[in-house]
Design brief:
Elements (H helix, E strand, L loop, with lengths): L3 H12 L2 H36 L6 E6 L17 E2 H10 L3 E10 L7 E3 L2 E3 L2 E5 L3 H4 L2 E6 L4 H6 L3 E5 H7 L10 E4 L2 E11 L11 E5 H7 L5 E2 L1 E6 L5 H15 L10 E5 H44 L1 H9 L4 H41 L12 H27 L3 H6 L2
Parallel strand pairs: 6-11, 8-10
Antiparallel strand pairs: 1-13, 1-14, 2-12, 3-6, 3-13, 4-5, 4-9, 7-10, 8-11, 9-10
Helix pairs in contact: 1-11, 2-9, 2-11, 3-8, 9-11, 9-12, 11-12
């Protein structure tokens, strides 16, 4: 196999008709190039979408109250109601698979500014939360601290503001911590600022205010009412499998008919995340399917060219057979020519694919982040898989011509003009 004469013969055969060899190699190289580019593009899309989920507790559902559509236990249909803090404790007792239950309230965005600091004003979303909410949101404390259970228990009027609000209401080098904001008529002290782990630069990016749930309830007369809940399941449990149990528990607590599908609304983030994961799998399948189809067309071209080469060398093969050369030696010669041509052309496709990916990443770095597309790349496993595909393809491309070559009877081959 490693005979110098054999490799010299392979090079002579492939270089005897350079343009035919180049045209044949192009089909294989183009197939590998397309495969790598498609996989890299899919990975870039996957990275971009995953970045939007970065820092978010994906095994989470959000639940809120709506209007009842059925009468129940003497209560009429069309009734508005609220969750209560006692529902949170009830869920903890009845559904032990839940890791975090965050009751939430908020001030709705309305016309006019709701936050004042000196002569500066702004209109921002304000939330009353428990400290665990930071584990469910894609954010981190950039300066100062987040509120804790001491703030909850003592109903301290403290807030954590987004870095976007700091830019809106403060001078660039001005100290934020310890200052006061008047929020819907009530003064609160700023104890920290946060940044988002995924900042897409939107208009409302990092422009929210968080305060202790109890302080919010006291300042805005919400008593023990809960606007909605963010609920995260423990590792190993699926919130999608638990949401029916969660909803039925609060239905019973709030005296809602068990069959009332409209009274409680929810959004299953885990279900949506799994759909995205399925999309990623589908994209990878399409990339491999299309890339391999293009590659197969190139392999067919290699096989056809090898058949032509065999026909041109019929007399040579007949002489070698007449001189007693082993049929396996002739088969091996044809297979090696096919594999060599396939691997060389495929490696060129891999190199151009890698250079193209490098160029795309350099372009993205120069123009800044692009929504839903980040760092297109292929893993080492993909490159190894491509090499395996090349080797197998080379064997397939040479198998038929090799068998055709050894089926030629020496006497018939010598008569061929």
């Amino acid at each position: 196999m490693f005979s110098k004469d054999r490799w010299k013969e392979i090079l002579e055969v492939l270089s005897s008709n350079v343009w035919r060899t180049v045209a044949t190699a192009f089909g294989v190289g183009w197939g590998i190039f397309i495969l790598i580019i498609l996989l890299a593009a899919g990975k870039g899309l996957e990275n971009g979408i995953r970045q939007d989920f970065n820092g978010v507790a994906t095994n989470t559902m959000f639940m809120w109250t709506e209007t009842t559509s059925m009468a129940y236990e003497g209560l009429p249909e069309g009734r508005n109601f609220n969750f209560k803090l006692e529902d949170v404790d009830l869920l903890r007792r009845n559904v032990p698979e839940l890791r975090i239950i965050s009751p939430r309230n908020s001030i709705r965005m309305q016309e006019g500014d709701n936050v004042i600091r000196g002569t500066e004003t702004g209109r921002y979303r304000v939330f009353g939360d428990y400290p665990e909410i930071i584990e469910q949101n894609p954010m981190f404390v950039a300066h100062g601290r987040f509120f804790n259970y001491n703030d909850i228990n003592e109903k301290r009027k403290v807030v954590v503001i987004g870095d976007g609000i700091r830019q809106d209401l403060y001078e660039e080098d001005e100290e934020v911590l310890g200052t006061y904001l008047k929020i819907s008529g009530v003064n609160f002290m700023v104890i920290g600022t946060y940044k988002e782990k995924t900042n897409n630069g939107g208009e409302n990016s990092e422009r929210q205010i968080f305060m202790p749930f109890t302080s919010f309830s006291q300042a805005y007369n919400r008593a023990d009412n809960v606007g909605w809940m963010a609920i995260t399941a423990k590792d190993g449990s699926s919130i999608s499998e638990l949401n029916e149990e969660v909803i039925n528990t609060v239905k019973q607590s709030r005296k809602v008919h068990p069959d009332d599908e409209r009274a409680i609304g929810y959004f299953d983030l885990y279900e949506q995340f799994n759909r995205v994961e399925s999309l990623f799998g589908a994209l990878r399948f399409v990339a491999y399917f299309v890339g391999i189809l293009v590659l197969i067309s190139g392999i067919i071209g290699v096989s056809n060219i090898m058949l032509i080469v065999i026909k041109e060398r019929t007399k040579e093969i007949g002489i070698r057979r007449a001189l007693g050369e082993n049929p396996w030696s002739i088969r091996l010669q044809i297979l090696m020519e096919s594999i060599f041509l396939t691997i060389i052309s495929g490696m060129i496709g891999i190199i151009f694919g890698a250079l193209s990916i490098y160029g795309i990443n350099s372009l993205l770095d120069s123009i800044g982040p692009v929504d839903m597309f980040l760092n297109p790349s292929v893993s080492l496993g993909v490159v190894v898989s491509a090499l395996v595909i090349l080797i197998v393809s080379g064997l397939l491309a040479g198998f038929i011509p090799a068998n055709s070559a050894i089926r030629v009877r020496p006497i018939e081959a010598l008569r061929t003009e």
